Amino acid sequence: MSATVIPVPPTVLLPVEGTDETFPVRRVYCVGRNYADHAIEMGHDPSREPPFFFQKNADNLLPAGKDFPYPALSSNVHYEVECVVALKSGGSDISVDDALEHVWGYGVGIDMTRRDMQDALKKMGRSWESAKAFEFSAPVSPLVPASKIGHPAKGAVWLEVNGERKQSGDLDQMIWKTAEIIAELSKLFTLAAGDVIMTGTPAGVGAIVSGDRIDCGVDGVGTLSVKIA
User: Fold this and answer.
1) How far apart are CA 84 and CA 157, in angstroms?
2) What is the mean pLDDT of each run of 10 residues along the chain (229 residues)?
3) How far apart are CA 177 and CA 153, in angstroms?
4) Pairing of strands 28-32, 196-198
5) Contact criterion met (CB below 8 Å) for 107 and 16
């Protein structure tokens, strides 16, 4: 094997709950406006239109136990709690019936968003990367295998800031369910082992400031606590 001209970038590894094993991350996909109440609060029609996707980078993931550093160039950063899906295999044009066979496990994540920057980008008709894929923009809990918890289709999705409940929803309120998300995503990209999917957030998103503490979770999957540095 030939030598690399620069050091090989490290692989992003997410811990597996209750073990010393890790899950290596390949790509991170996110689903936009996948809860009707959140679509409404963002000023959109909650009807079942085709899902849309955007990406974060693998090294945007912030493992549990680390503080979230408030990003520069923004003064309105929002939390969005989501159920996270981790794939053990993939492919293209996966059927809905086969989709869950590709899931390794689940976790809890927060899609941190520079809302002021996103709003400006929307007005200019530009892409969202700088508002969504900034450093440490996706805090995520340890993952739990589907072999242990199954494939949750119901369960409260919630988030608190400094002990005050801000977001309350349920997995059964997702417009596009997990299997459908995988199937639709596989029409656009060739999915593979190591891919992570953030499945959307319920209503109640809002701003955080330095010193805040976020506690969130998906019942039947796990919890996550993050301090805003």
Assistant:
1) 11
2) 91 98 98 76 65 95 97 96 98 98 98 94 89 97 98 97 97 95 98 98 96 98 98
3) 8
4) parallel
5) no
